[in-house]
Amino acid sequence: MLKVENVTKYYGDNPAVKNLSFTVNDGEIFGLLGVNGAGKTTTFRMIIGLLDKSDGTITFDGSPVDYKVTDKIGFLTEERSLLTKLTVYDQALFYGGLKGMDKSEIIERLDYLLEKLEIQEYKNRKIKELSKGNQQKVQFIMSIINKPKLLILDEPFSGLDPINIELFKKLILELKSEGTSIIFSSHRMDHVEYFCESLLILVKGKTVLSGNLKQIKEDFRKKNIIIEGDIEKEKLEKIKGVLGVSFNKGEYLVKINDMSIVDKVFKYVSTCKNITKFVVEEPSLNEIFIEKVGGSYE
How far apart (Å, rounded) are the C-alpha atoms in residues 204 and 40? Predict the structure, then answer.
């Protein structure tokens, strides 16, 4: 289990992270979100010991993170961090050696992961000869070559097509089932919703939202109603508590202030003809993120 407690990091007089606290349990995928410059990378580097914190504590399985536990950690960075003149095989020997693995263990693990990601034929190819997507696969392999107990994934699906994203998802869920604590960061809110039960959103180093994702969505003020049928948009917009109405692909999306407005909308819709759909939805994580951060990812 990873525990980050009241952690602060200053660069000079400027706080990059301020009073940050969260816990990632064994076998949990935890979402750490924020726009560029929010403090995510600083947090990742403090967790793995590359940066000293200014205040607070970070422990993994009850012990401070130092060289005694770094062999148990994997980190997939957003930036490429591969030695491109090496073959995939030699890169694995190098990374695995840094993690205290013996050669036979590294080769066995490498062969398993190459097969899982369907790139066995690239084992003896130089990394610089691979496509961007296959380099991302290799980088992922290097981050989990040691079967980490703690794994940080920063934009893991960068450069991948939908088929290869599914291959990554299966491996991530496999690690979760084996008890790995995973911190997941992505610009894609749908990926965060797929993996994470709990999350935290950073803005300028400060926590603006944290908790269980299901509870966050239940507590969020705005709700959506999806309607399909013959209605008059202008009449819906006049209902007190309706925040907006849009039309797309044959459906009306009605944003309401809170759940008390549902009955008012339903009362109007029940007077309309050809109603084939009336569904009350929770807001998406993307909507919540934009509301809390004040902008969207690019």
Answer: 10
Fold of 2-217: Rossmann fold (3.40.50)
Distance of CA 49 to the CA centre of its chain: 21
Note whether 31 and 185 are within 8 A (CB): yes
pLDDT per residue, tens digit, the chain (298 aa), is 999 999 999 999 999 999 999 999 999 999 999 998 899 999 999 999 999 999 999 999 998 988 788 899 999 998 878 999 999 999 999 999 999 999 999 999 999 999 999 999 999 999 999 999 999 999 999 999 999 999 999 999 988 999 999 999 999 999 999 999 999 999 999 999 999 999 999 999 999 999 999 999 888 877 899 999 999 999 999 999 999 999 999 999 999 988 899 999 999 999 999 999 999 988 889 989 998 887 544 4
pTM (two decimals): 0.86
Range list of β-strands (E), the chain = 2-11, 14-24, 29-33, 55-60, 63-64, 73-76, 150-154, 181-185, 198-203, 206-212, 223-230, 242-248, 251-256, 273-281
Give the separation between CA 161 and CA 288, rounded to whole angstroms. 26
CB 195 within 8 A of CB 31: yes
CATH 3.40.30.10 applies to domain 221-281 = no
Where are the domains positioned within the chain? 2-217, 221-281
